[in-house]
Amino acid sequence: MVNYCTGMYHSPCSQHPLLKHLFPEGNPKRPFVKKPTTTGTQFKISVDSLMKNLVSKQLHYVRCIRPNTGHHARLFEPGLVQHQVKYLGLLETVRIRRSGFCYRLPFDQFVSRYKLLSPVTWPCSPCSPVEAVHAILHGLPIPRGEFAFGRSKLFVRSPRSVFELEEFRRDRLEDLAVLIQKVWRGYHQRKDYLKRKRSQIIIASAWRSWRECRYGITYQGRRHLWCLYNIAKEEYRNLKQKKLVEWAVRTIQRYYIRWKRRHFLISLAIDLSTLCDSPISREWPPCPRRLTETSLLIRRLHHKWRCHKYRMRFDQVSRNRMREKVTASIIFRDRKASYAKSVSHPFLGDYVRLRQNVQWKKMSLESNDQYVVFADMINKITRSSGKV
């Protein structure tokens, strides 16, 4: 081709300007003539550019299956479709996809796309991409087994999970759109309201000025009205300040009483642990004047608890002995002169050891009565003669 173009420059027709413009490579005066690329080189260059383009993209293979050979609508040939599915290897591809992960995405891209699904990451994520992905997936009703974390990417096992993510994102986009509309409408209505309010104030002030000038109110009258207005304004301010002070006093007083009550209960709990456990003890910590009734109720409850605790120390025999003492106190107190001296001595009942007497044992076996209430040596006095 180069030799042919060079020969054309030496022919009589080579002086034609159109030929020189169409075939510049045939000019023999050119210092360098580039060799044209071959078909193999062009194919290699196109393949390299295609591979560079594919590497920078995320590939998705789409396989088209013809339902029939005649390209007719609403006609399905099962044999032809099965043949295409078999020889295209679709079943093997599906099995491989099921055993592995069908979708993968870098952490930052996943957060950028699905951050609106979690309140932790929306609108701005304060944590790292990996923590943000964990926060997003934690709030979604998708099993944890559907995801796997790599070094820089998140892997999704089934397409159903991907579709659910997109559904959640679509629903959330609608909610956010409604929220944006609500906020914008509120802002717009508030702005319109403030504008109308300013207009109303301007119109009202202008109308009052016109009314005063129209009905001929003198300067002294306007000055008097202005003084009355200032006085009323000052009175209103003082009344408002007074109500505020009263409210503050009530609030401080209420919180002070609560603090005082809490302080009293805490100190009472500490002091009660050091008091005497005796039921007859009358020791009790002092209390504030406002908590007198509360202190009396707590003191009564504490006394009952202390008595119950004191009673639980005794066994059944000691309780019976205590009941006997109480009964004796009810019977003999203030009636018997020697009762006060006998309180310190325990009541035995059998002072002569009657249970060890042979005659008593024989008589008790015959009558089947072995219970002795009281037995002692006494001097019997005859009433008629007074002799012992």
From TrEMBL:
Q: Which Pfam families match?
A: IQ, Myosin_head
List the GO terms this entry assigns under cellular component, sorted alphabetically.
Answer: cytoplasm; microvillus; myosin complex; plasma membrane
Tell whether Nucleotidyltransferase is among the UniProt keywords: no
Query: Which UniProt keyword terms apply here?
Result: Actin-binding, ATP-binding, Motor protein, Myosin, Nucleotide-binding
**Which spans of this chain does the record mark as coiled coil?**
none
Q: Which GO terms describe its biological process?
A: actin filament organization; actin filament-based movement; endocytosis
Quick one: where's region Actin-binding? 47-69
Domain (Myosin motor): give its ranges: 1-170
Sorted alphabetically, which SMART domains does this protein's record hold?
A: IQ, MYSc
Instruction: List the PANTHER family.
Output: MYOSIN, UNCONVENTIONAL MYOSIN-IB ISOFORM X1
The name this protein goes by in its record:
Unconventional myosin-Ia
Organism in which the protein naturally occurs:
Cacopsylla melanoneura
